[in-house]
Amino acid sequence: MITAVVGILGTLFAPLLQQRMTARQRVEDALTEDRRRRFEERRAAYTAMNRASRQFHTLLKDALHRIRDDVYTDEDRVRLEEARRDYRDRYAEAQMIVPERVLEASRELNTVLAGIDALAKRIDRGLQSDGRTAADALVELKEAEPRLSAMRRIMREDLGIFD
Asked: Superkingdom of this entry's organism (predicted)?
C-alpha cells in the first residue's frame, strides 16, 4: 500500500518538479544573458571611447603642429571639430553604463584634452592672452598620454583582461 501511494505521489509530483526545474533554468539563462549583454555593452562603449579619445588626441597633436608651422587649414579645423564631437558623444554614452573608476580615469583625460583644445582654438585665433604658443601646448598635451594609457588599462581590467 505504501509503495503504491509513493508511486502515485511520484507520478503526480514529477511534472511539478520538472516545471519548477525548467523555470529555474530559464531564470538562470536570463541572468546569464543579461550579464553577457551588459558585458558586450561595456566592451562596445570602451572600444568606442578608447578609439574616439585617441583620435581626438592625435588630431589635436596634429593641429598644434600645423598651427606651430603656420599651415593649419579650415579642413584641419573641421576634422578636429568632428573628432572632438565624436569624443564628446562617446564620453556621454559611456557615462551611462561604465563603473565610476572608469569615469574617474576618463574625466582626468577629458580635463587635459578639453583644456588643450580650448588653448589650441585661442592660439589659432590669436586670442591667447598669456603668451602660450602651440609648442607650449604640445608639451602640455603630453600629460594626456599617461592618462590615455591608464584609462585603457582600467577598461581592460574591468573586462577581465589582465597583463
From this structure: Bacteria
